[in-house]
Amino acid sequence: MFQHPGDSNISKFQVSEFILMGFPGIHTWQHWLSLPLALLYLLALTANILILIIINQEATLHQPMYFFLGVLAVVDMGLATTIMPKILAILWFSAKAISLPECFAQMYVIHCFVAMESGIFVCMAIDRYVAICKPLRYPAIVTDSFVVKATVFMALRNSLATIPVPVLAAQRHYCSQNQIEHCLCSNLGVTSLSCDDRTINSIYQLLLAWTLMGSDLALIFLSYALILHSVLKLNSAEAASKALSTCTSHLILILFFYTVIVVISITHNAAMTLPLVPVLLNVLHNVIPPALNPMVYALKNRELRQGLYKVLKMDKEN
Question: Which molecular-function annotations from GO does this UniProt entry contain (predicted)?
Fold first, then answer.
């Protein structure tokens, strides 16, 4: 019935900062990962800035599909910049300490940008659906007003829906450990250090995943199922091939984005035996798509390639 004085002091103690330990199990040589990660970060920034310049300079690219691609480029740069400077600081300078407000802010921005990327994929899927299944009505449906409203809606949805994640994490009491076996402030990684019940955090994380990511994935699947159904009804094989080719790059990026999220969720349950796997996948998921997205679109899209040639002063017709 009586609490020991020492226990009382511990329960009242609140840590003032977290220590991001980096990649679990490879602390002695994790600095070697800094070079490929730094190169990926520079590639992501350079490629996405190029995409924005090309879209801005080429009048033929002032279309809804490329506007969404431009928004995706901004989101990708924001996501990579949210985590990579701190990760490189950990690997290069052992700057592992991060204050609680900074940690919770990073947690919020990561969730917001990842959800925003998912939302933009939905907008792009709807755009392709209307363009292929209802081509005659495309100019009337996908207007500049529609594009702006869809983007603003996604921004508001994701920025508001993810607010409870850091708020709930900040309400937990961190009284003993402050070392996080991670390179960034993930929700589950941080709240696992709390001394009180974190059930509400886990429930909201699961609810957020199902409502945001789940609904986005369902809409994307529905859009492409309708596109496939429409394409299969075309009499011309050439027309069908041309219609599907416009969706290939989008599908590649969507499959990579959601597949890694599913794999991270599965491997998180095995974190006790293989703690490095979910951490490494989490970091790569936040830096590879920003580097991969613009390259896949540039390789698969003739208009973007031509714009790239012009920006680089390499005039080519094909």
Answer: G protein-coupled receptor activity; olfactory receptor activity
In whole angstroms, give the CA distance from residue 10 to residue 12.
5
- In one-letter notation, the amino acid at residue 63 is Q
For residue 97, the cross-strand partners are 19
Q: Which tens digits make up the pLDDT trace of 112-155? A: 999 999 999 999 999 999 999 999 999 999 999 999 999 999 99
pTM: 0.90
Q: In degrees, to the nearest 5, what angle opens at C-alpha 237 toward C-alphas 233 and 240?
A: 60
Q: Which domain holds residue 188?
A: 17-309
> Which runs of consecutive H residues, i.e. helices, occur in the chain?
5-12, 34-57, 64-93, 100-133, 138-141, 144-161, 164-170, 187-191, 199-208, 215-232, 237-268, 276-300, 302-311
In a domain, 74, yes or no: yes
| Chain CA centroid to CA 173, Å | 28
Give pLDDT tens digits for 80-104. 999 999 999 999 999 999 999 999 9
Q: Which two tokens stand for residue 74?
A: 């901004």
Output the domain CATH number for residue 289. Answer: 1.20.1070.10
